[in-house]
């Protein structure tokens, strides 16, 4: 793809190449072929093709963007994309020196990747791929046409690359959290006695969309139920509401949970939410750059263990950014199936974590707080720090 006369472009990679080179050296990888939407977006400086922002399938195949990066040689980088992305490149030129916007499916994308790898002399190298995000037909083609290549899992290297957020990423995560909090509080105020779960979720979807978010999900409970799926169940006077939502702002995830009650909270409800908040605060007190992430987990679990509601309460913490569970990985298989490989590593300024405490009370229902924290040298900054007490519905 040629640049139009007079057109300018930056060929400077929008990520820390020295850090990625080191991670690739550690993993024994010569060249990465990234294929996940989140990692291609990251490596392309935030770019994501709007036509396939939600769907992937088209015709008999699917959209498969690729970013090819050779260790120590960013001038050998390439972007492989859909044929329609040529117009995107024309209007806002991509940074990669080579741009191949000529695909409609997985096999033509893989074929162009093979051609590029041969061109830069890496057809027989150790190639880093994302196994969970590389379709089998594309991998088979790569393997059949790159006879001397060895394939390695580049997932960990790319996760470490994204672990510490840039100021621009932090701003997007802050906006995502603030907008979701605003949408949840507006929804709680708008709905009334008799509003069903389906109606409340639809109200939240509209509130998030009107604020510039891409609505992703809402997990909602009413009354004593622990079922968070949409249903015709209606909100009744005196019942609690738990609203947990994820929204996407320019590719970055906001994920928070807030509580409400239709009427005034009684003394028991105040005490139960205070228990949840005390576990959250125990975790917050240990959050800053330097100490191991596991210290925060231990502090929260110590308070949880002493809680009167410990038998039906759970604490969880996970990293977040472009996806809802990413580095730092602080807990093992709890509840998502991955290992807590970062529990003994120091937290770093710029990492972002979600801290959540969930109480499944047998009579009063689902009581939960989920907060988003950006780690700093001296502590943390909380994103979306509103509505953490009992919010009143129908006001």
TrEMBL record:
One of its GO terms (molecular function) is aminopeptidase activity. Keywords: Aminopeptidase, Hydrolase, Protease. InterPro entries: Creatin/AminoP/Spt16_N, Creatinase/aminopeptidase-like, Creatinase_N, Pept_M24, Peptidase_M24B. Pfam families: Creatinase_N (PF01321), Peptidase_M24 (PF00557). This is Xaa-Pro aminopeptidase. Residues 18-164 form the Creatinase N-terminal domain. Residues 172-377 form the Peptidase M24 domain. SUPFAM superfamilies: Creatinase/aminopeptidase (SSF55920), Creatinase/prolidase N-terminal domain (SSF53092). The keyword Protease applies. It comes from Phyllobacterium trifolii.
């Amino acid at each position: 793809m040629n640049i139009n006369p007079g057109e300018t472009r930056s060929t400077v990679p929008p990520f820390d190449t020295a850090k990625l080179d080191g991670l690739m050296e550690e993993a024994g990888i010569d060249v990465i072929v990234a294929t996940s939407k989140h990692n291609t977006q990251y490596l392309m400086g935030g770019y994501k093709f709007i036509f396939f922002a939600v769907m992937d399938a088209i015709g008999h195949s699917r959209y498969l963007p690729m970013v090819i990066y050779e260790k120590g040689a960013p001038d050998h980088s390439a972007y492989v994309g859909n044929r329609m992305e040529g117009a995107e490149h024309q209007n806002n030129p991509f940074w990669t020196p080579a741009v191949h916007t000529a695909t409609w499916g997985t096999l033509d994308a893989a074929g162009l990747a093979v051609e590029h790898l041969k061109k830069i002399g890496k057809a027989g190298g150790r190639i880093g791929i994302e196994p969970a995000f590389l379709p089998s037909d594309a991998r088979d083609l790569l393997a059949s046409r790159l006879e001397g290549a060895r394939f390695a899992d580049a997932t960990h290297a790319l996760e470490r690359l994204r672990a510490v957020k840039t100021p621009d990423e932090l701003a997007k995560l802050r906006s995502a959290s603030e907008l979701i909090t605003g949408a949840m509080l507006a929804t709680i105020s708008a709905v009334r006695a008799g509003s069903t779960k389906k109606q409340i979720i639809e109200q939240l979807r509209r509130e998030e969309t009107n604020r510039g978010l891409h609505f992703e999900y809402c997990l909602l409970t009413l009354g004593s139920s622990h079922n968070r799926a949409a249903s015709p169940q209606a909100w009744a006077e005196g019942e609690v509401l738990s609203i947990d939502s994820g929204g996407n702002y320019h590719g970055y995830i906001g994920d928070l949970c807030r509580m409400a009650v239709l009427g005034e909270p009684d003394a028991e409800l105040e005490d139960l939410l205070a228990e949840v908040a005390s576990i959250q605060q125990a975790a917050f007190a240990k959050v800053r750059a330097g100490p191991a992430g596991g210290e925060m987990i231990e502090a929260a679990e110590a308070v949880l263990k002493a809680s009167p509601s410990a038998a039906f309460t759970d604490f969880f913490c996970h990293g977040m950014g472009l996806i809802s569970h990413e580095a730092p990985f602080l807990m093992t298989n709890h509840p998502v199936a991955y290992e807590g490989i970062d529990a003994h590593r120091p937290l770093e300024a710029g990492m972002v974590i979600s801290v959540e405490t969930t109480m499944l009370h047998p009579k009063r229902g689902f009581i939960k707080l989920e907060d988003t924290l950006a780690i700093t040298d001296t502590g943390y900054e909380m994103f979306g720090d509103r509505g953490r007490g009992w919010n009143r519905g129908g006001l």
